[in-house]
Amino acid sequence: MLPIVFEWHWDIGHFVFMGLFYTALGVVSLGIAVALVRTFKDLCAGKDPHEMHHH
Amino acid sequence: MPMDDSRYWPQGTTRCKPIPFLIWMVFCLLLGGWAVHSATLCLWKGLNQTAMNDFFAFGVWIVVDLAIIALGAGAFFTGFMTYVLRRDELKNIINAAVIIGFICYSGAILMLGIDIGQPIRGWFGFWHANVHSMLTEVMFCITTYLIVLIIEFVPLVLENRQINKVPDLAFFAHHLHRIMIVFAATGTFLSFFHQGSLGGMFGVLYARPFAYRTGVAIWPWTFFLFILSAIASGPSFTTLMVMATEKASGRKLTTHKVKMMMGKVSGYLLTFYLILKGADTLYWANVTLPKMGVSFWDMYQSSYGIYLVWLELGLFGAVPAFLLLHRRVRESYGLMALAMILNCLGAVTNRFVFTIQPLAIPVMPFEKWQFYWPTIPEWGISFGVIAYGLIIFSLAYRYLPVFPQEVELNK
What we know:
By secondary structure, chain A is mainly alpha-helical. Chain A is built from one helix and no strands.
């Protein structure tokens, strides 16, 4: 739901509810973007992926 | 050798031969085929294929939905303990928890796709959101959390022995792992609210005395009780699935210490839940119900008698809590498994009682107690979700490095 939809009201309910929803989606998207950018940088730097350990 | 898939198995492990695995897959697919047939019937002919009617707007699908979402809470709570509270020993079971969470949530959403009757209009709830509805919050959080679970599952898939040879994918898996705390924290936030809102949905039904509860601010007490029962049963369910896989494969997958820790967490949370649930039940029976002009005994009649209370809070509540609190019980593989089964049955009974019973109780003076029993297509779709879970978990176990301790424990 975006403010362009006819049911939208500029009230606290819509602000909090949709605000939290889009924040969660934003954090998740940003996380994926960070992982993709770091992957790209590592590939460009010619690193060996199997020398990295995450556990 | 044809059909030899050993090069895809996790490094240093062995799995059963392809033929028994294929037979097992065919069995699961047959069960899944029953679900596809049932779903086709419901989508083609309509929801008249179910036993739902003007009394029962919710049926077995919602019971299964709520139950598997509660049992799938092991994913977010184990993730929270592993990445946020830094309990490193749980890294040995977190992959299994994530897969089970993924199965539970995606299974629930698949099932809801049939339950809403017209899945083609499923997006309406997102675009024309009613922000005052608990169900809207549930829908938003469940779908967003499923995205989080997929992100948590992807690195594990990319760690497959053959897939991991592709540098791009190996780097991506590595970098997703490194920021997993962000996803775990987001998942905890989302899960916390939708588990709560599922309970809140019942607690705000002021025309249904069985479900209605008082509360704090906009949240009825059921909001908090549903969160607690989910995080008490989720870790038990995850551990049970690991134990079942150990029995089926004949291999040791995690140390008993890890399982005991999950059992201890379940035991303490279940005890805390039961204390609050007991207080809530007493207040509801002695204050809330009399204020609404009905008594506690009015709520338990016909097929839905008082035995349900004894089952939910006694045999499936107090008994597993008592067992799991004792170290000696947790040290025994069989007793701990039994306590965990009872714990999970308690969560399922709670979801059944809240979904079906409020609708069975007459709300008009001229109405009688109603009884609901699912039709064959309803059972078909319910068993289909189980088949779906078995297929995903079996494939994941066979081809992905789910258990970091497996190689060491089976030397």
